[in-house]
Amino acid sequence: MELRGWAGAFAVLGVLAGCGGDGDSDRPDARVDEAAVKKVLEEALDALFDGDGARACSLYTSSYRRKLVEENQADRSDVAPRGDSCEEQVKNYEPILKRFVPGRDVKVIRVSVRGDNATAVSVFNTTRGKSRVKESLVRRDGEWKINDDQEQAEGAPPTGPGGVDAPGTP
């Protein structure tokens, strides 16, 4: 069974557990950027758990919204949210998220900001085992937006963006 395109939904759980920066995090502007990235992830998490599609999708780039919708429409598994828009899919994703990620036991391993690009790496537990997610963000017009994600089973090589295997599946 696969969780297509929604690895980022799980990655945003990581902001609740704190964050370790890397590289230039001693610079004041780097710490400000890291805090801004964490804030976007936290807002997205809250919106996903609330089923608030308008709020969640406003935090995604337009290309990421399109990718999520297309991947979920192509996925016929019981873990793909249905809908013709990002907003509708987020609303329908809420019960799926709560089923597979009942808690928020997440540890952020790293946040890295380089100019207008950022990544956040988290590990967390799902009902299918431990998972690791790398979320990519970009700054557009001064605002951070979620742009892509990658998920992998703990200890496994990355599978690439979208169409990722669910944690704990062979």
Summarize the structure.
Helix content is 36%, strand content 27%. The longest helix has 23 residues.
Write up what this structure looks like:
- The chain is α+β, with helices and mostly antiparallel strands.
- It has a single domain, classed as Roll (Nuclear Transport Factor 2, Chain: A), CATH 3.10.450.50.
- It has five helices and six strands; from the N terminus they run E-H-H-H-H-H-E-E-E-E-E.
- It has helices spanning 7-11, 28-50, 53-57, 62-74, 86-100, and strands at residues 2-3, 106-114, 117-126, 129-140, 143-153, 164-165.
- The strands form two sheets. It has a four-stranded antiparallel β-sheet. A two-stranded antiparallel ribbon has the order 1-6.
- A hairpin with a 2-residue loop joins strand 4 and strand 5.
- Helix 2 (28-50) packs across helix 5 (86-100).
- It is globular, with a radius of gyration of 15 Å.
- The relative contact order is 0.23.
- Mean pLDDT is 75; it is low at 10-25 and 156-170.
CATH class designation: Alpha Beta
β-strand amount: 25-35%
Mean pLDDT figure: 75
List the helices and strands in order.
EHHHHHEEEEE
- Cα distance, first to last residue? 9 Å
Largest sheet: 4 strands, antiparallel
Structural class: alpha+beta
In total, how many domains does the architecture comprise?
1
What is the gyration radius calculated from CA atoms?
Answer: 15 Å
Low-confidence stretches: 10-25, 156-170
State the share of residues found in helices, binned by percent.
25-40%
Q: Oligomeric form of this entry? A: single chain
**CATH architecture identity:** Roll
* Helix segment tally: 5
Q: Which fold does the CATH topology refer to?
A: Nuclear Transport Factor 2, Chain: A
